[in-house]
Write a structure and sequence with these properties.
Layout lengths: L4 E5 L2 E7 H8 L3 H9 L7 E3 L2 E5 L8 H12 L1
Antiparallel strand pairs: 1-2, 2-4, 3-4
Helix pairs in contact: 1-2
Amino acid sequence: MKEDFLHIFGGKHMEYLTSAECAEKWNVSQRWVAIYCKEGRIEGAIQKGRMWFIPVGTEKPIDPRKARKLKQNKCN
């Protein structure tokens, strides 16, 4: 995996990963990372053109399909 890049967006100085790097780290497709970002489920994600940048250290959001199954199993 490439080294983390240092980006400056909106006057904030933070380290960001690309959606491709997060997809590899979280073992999901780049499309899923884009969906998480577009739905606002990744705090601090920034879109520049067609690319998404995610702050380093961000945890993978819980898949709502799996969360629903876990909730149903707890109720039974």
